[in-house]
Predict the structure.
Amino acid sequence: METWFLILVSISIAAFLRALINLCLPSKNSALNLKLPPGPSNFPIIGHFLWLRKSFAELEHIIRSLHAKFGPVITLPIGPRPSIFVADRNLAHQALIQNGAVFADRPSALAVGKVLSSNQHNINASFYGPTWRLLRRNLTSELLHPSRVKSYSHARKWVLQILVNRFESQSKSGNPVHVLAGIQYAMFCLLVLMCFGDKLNQKQIEEIERVERAMLLNSGSFNLLNFWPRLSKIVFRKRWSQFLQLRKDQEDVLIPLIRARMKVKEEKLSKSNNENDDYILSYVDTLLDLQLPHEKRKLSEDEIVTLCNEFLNAGTDTTSTALQWIMANLVKYPQIQEKLFVEMKGVVGDAAEEIKEEEVQQMAYLKAVVLEGLRRHPPGHFVLPHSVTEDAKLGNYLVPKNGTINFMVAEMGWDPKVWEDPMAFKPERFMGSEEVFDITGSREIKMMPFGVGRRMCPGYGLAMLHLEYFVANLVWKFEWKAVDGDDVDLSEKEEFTVVMKNPLQAILSSRVFTGQNQENSTSMSRESLVA
Ligand code: HEM
């Protein structure tokens, strides 16, 4: 019933939408006198239907073949507004760096996105303006500032130990270790501790993971609620109530934690400095006193929940996906793993129990391995959809104010004009230059796994640290080998990020003393958190 309803409604309104787009968007814009980028004039009606049901990522292969036919910038008339897709890195530079301010906007949220973003009151969905600036600056200067990130080094050490213990106990049986669940949980722990403070127990972390994952896993199926929301609220009332229930579940779990941080903050204020030695600022703490510039009010609890969701989701799946891809390549190519191990030995000697964060900075090959992982397997094959603050020119084409513009991350990192043999995994390509590779793309875009320009991922420094620290220590503690007779399969599957179709399994053998008898350095009991 649902499918037929959608097809019928799609057919009837597809023609209407096309007419509307043509009406609103004459093929030439009068002020700029430019045309929209080329594209199929009659994108099949089923395209509207597909668009409702599928993510951009799932449409990637269609878009790729359209690029081959029409060139590196195309328009697709899907949805109520034209969507432009850019595959060329020079055009991306022109838009996101040279005309950064104009191309830094986001489109208006659709019905589901409005609920999830508290009406665009989070960083990734907010329009380019004072609210975005306030929220983004708060994250980057209060929490992601290098000195603050350093204050969480004990949490990283502790989470690493949990992961190592988990892999060790799984590998003792001689069976292959299933890698993904462990690294997802580890990355999630790290972000939860930064978000809510480091005094949470296992049960609380698992509860948060449960409600966040439930929303993430179902999010694709809620896309169709965006379609004519007034009608869909009647026709799909069960799906709407399921969606709203998942959101309420998140609020029920997160709001008590937010209130608990309020109390901690009040207590801290009422004590002298010396009595607060173990206090570490959390993301929630930074949000409690923020004043929204337009509305001149503090953030509501609902908005703080939204910002916490954004923080947890933006930083967990992306980083664990990247980590899994990198480890898979190290299993597939033992000579690269060995070269990395030798580099680490050269820096820390034979007897070190672990690789420390400061030591990671001296490891050029490690950094090359991580960069190559992000180039070859960027967790997101698109940046988030952008829009422009005014009608703009890109190449010789028009980018209209009411459209969306999307940049194809994977295509740019695989450009054979920049990268020799681009589909091969060769960390050496990042070695040999005196200069540190510029991932911000400010001079030239060679790859953009974190986006570039004003909307570039504000978490990229933290993500790089997490990747370098965990790759280094996982290789330092274990030798990773392929399961007998198994050629590691690098096929992709599109979920929230682009993941391994067949999640990584490997045989792990301990290399060095793993510090099992070390005292737990955090206020939490380590045993309480080992899953
Ligand atoms: C390997 C890990 C990560 C990757 C590959 C990644 C990638 C990206 C990409 C491609 C964007 C969109 C850029 C654009 O629209 O132009 C983005 C945005 C964002 N990321 Fe990340 N990210 C990662 C980790 C993180 C972490 C750890 C955090 C937070 C601690 C984070 C927070 C955000 C936020 C808040 C935005 C929205 C920025 C804005 O709209 O201004 N990300 N990220």
About this structure: Confidence is low (pLDDT under 50) at residues 3-28, 514-531. Residues 123-124, 136, 310-311, 314-315, 318-319, 322, 379-380, 383-384, 449-451, 455-459, 462-463 surround protoporphyrin IX containing FE (CB under 6 Å).
